[in-house]
Amino acid sequence: MDKSEWIWINGEFVAWEDAQIHVLSHGLHYGTGVFEGIRCYATDRGPAVFRHREHLRRLEHSAELYYLPLGYGLEEIREATHELIRRNGLESCYIRPLAFRGYGEMGLYAQTAPVEVMVAVWPWGAYLGEEGKRNGVRAKVSSWRRISPAGLIPHAKASGQYLNSILAKTESAKAGYDEAILLDERGTVCEGSGENIFVIRDGEIATPGHAASILDGVSRRSVIQIARDLGYKVVDRDIARAELYLADEVFLCGTAAELVPVREIDDHDLGDPGEITRAIQAMFDDALHGRAQEYAEWLDLVEPARRSSEAAKPSRAAVEAPAGSKVSG
Ligand code: PPE
To answer: Both 51 and 111 in a single domain?
Structure first.
């Protein structure tokens, strides 16, 4: 991965190499963490974070669902992230906030294990590739079903839950496909391993609803609004597996992947990206990069530092911390 210089941990900016944790950290053993994936784009008005507060609100919801006290307000995390982007001198980047149970107590009810909060930013290109965005990807319906609300919490973006996505992604990659599509426990269409899904048939755009075990994607919500603003009919409904194969167009959307057309599913050819997918993709791209005035409010501008000499300097604590130590406070 591409490195940057600074990482924010528990209120401090530390050097990338020094952002380390103990091997007995709770989250490493049990997956007790919640995280976000956010992107910052270079715009005419400077770096801008796409729907920053919506992502941080979901982080707060994920933490609430797993009984993790965050310890930092969303505005604090938001401002730290702005400062982190400035200190790293990045115009565009991927943003990964994570809150996890740290070192201090083992066992399943480890209420005294501290909740650590960190944010990292680094340059990360389109997750399924630029070529995938242009010409579409090949997907495979996974033999692994998406986690069910009977056992976990599809609405939460929690670290341990991603073992499910990793199984699906690994299976599809080893079989030579670009991405996996997961069904929910009922056998109806749910989502990609890291993206929500849209299926277009006879001019109607359908996407699985909240009860279909989806993650409530920020890109999904944005795409629904854009599609409706463009005059398309969007419905939230159950989608049968066969509809994937019979669809006129299918696309995936997520923060890391952005909007990606699907050109083939289980060796059923859907053809080149269709007209509706193209229209929504173009507008979504404009919104992300600050070229669409009507969606300007979705961008959280990273203002230049008030005094540039101050912003460039690391905090005293970060400089004085010995390599490998965890800075808290
Ligand atoms: N479903 C899942 C399971 C998922 O992980 C994501 C995001 C989405 C839907 C789309 O949500 P949103 O980004 O809010 O539109 N996946 C994140 C992590 C991917 C990764 O590989 O790591 C992301 O896209 O950042």
So the answer is: yes
159 class by beta-carbon count within 10 Å (0-12 exposed, 13-18 middle, 19+ buried): buried
Q: Count how many domains the chain has.
A: 2
Taking the CA of residue 112 as centre, how many other CA atoms within 13 Å lie in the half-sphere pointing to its CB? 4
Is 196 touching ligand 1 by the criterion CB < 6 Å?
yes
117 lines ligand 1 (CB under 6 A): no
The question of whether 157 is a catalytic residue gets the answer: yes
Q: How far is CA 132 from CA 118, 252, 259, 272, in A?
A: 31, 11, 9, 11
Per-residue pLDDT tens digits of the chain, which is 329 residues long: 999 999 999 999 999 999 999 999 999 999 999 999 999 999 999 999 999 999 999 999 999 999 999 999 999 999 999 999 999 999 999 999 999 999 999 999 999 999 999 999 999 988 888 999 999 999 999 999 999 999 999 999 999 999 999 999 999 999 999 999 999 999 999 999 999 999 999 999 999 999 999 999 999 999 999 999 999 999 999 999 999 999 999 999 999 999 999 999 999 999 999 999 999 999 999 999 999 999 999 999 999 987 655 444 454 444 434 343 433 33
- Name the closest-CA residue to atom 11, ligand 1: 217
> What CATH number should be reported for the domain holding residue 253?
3.20.10.10
